[in-house]
Amino acid sequence: MSFTLAIVGRPNVGKSTLFNRLVGKRLALVDDQPGVTRDLREGEARLGELRFTVIDTAGLEEATDESLQGRMRKLTERAVEMADACLFMIDARAGVLPADEIFADILRRKSAQVILGANKAEGRAGEGGYVEAWSLGLGDPIALSAEHGEGMFDLLQVLRPLV
Ligand code: GDP
Ligand code: MG
């Protein structure tokens, strides 16, 4: 069975951008349960020599009657259950927001194996948020720029012993 990494975090931190970078065109859809296809995207990731399955928690951006917080919890818990490890992404430009703390709590309660990624860290604008990320108590953050492909080597180094 292949190693599965779930990318989790609040809307707009860059989850799908990273997912697309890792997966390229090798996109497959999760089809086991109703609603999951829309909310969780699964693909075959390539990073350096590593091959693994990656899950993007999409579907948070859609407007529904249910609160965003409720959807975030449900989807994240489901992704955590499907995954061997989670890449929890924050937006280094925005810093740590209350919504990020909610994810940190979910991940702690589920005792998920967490890799913390501070995305949008290209240039200087992300420096404050990168430092703030330590306050989440989830270990050393990796500075990433999903858009520009920065930090991929550091991500590879962290994933290599796990995959
Ligand atoms: P998601 O909602 O977490 O899936 O976030 P998206 O991948 O849709 O990205 C949200 C926005 O952030 C988009 O406008 C992206 O272009 C932008 N974005 C993603 N990664 C980066 C990055 O590394 N740096 C910057 N500056 N913007 C990024
Ligand atoms: Mg997305």
TrEMBL record:
Segments passing through the bilayer: none
Domain EngA-type G: 3-163
Domain of life according to the entry: Bacteria
Binding annotation for GTP 1: 9-16, 56-60, 119-122
Cleavable signal peptide: none
General function of this protein: GTPase that plays an essential role in the late steps of ribosome biogenesis.
Assembly notes: Associates with the 50S ribosomal subunit.
Protein family: Belongs to the TRAFAC class TrmE-Era-EngA-EngB-Septin-like GTPase superfamily. EngA (Der) GTPase family.
Protein name from the UniProt record: GTPase Der
Shown residues in whole-protein numbering: 1 to 163 of 490
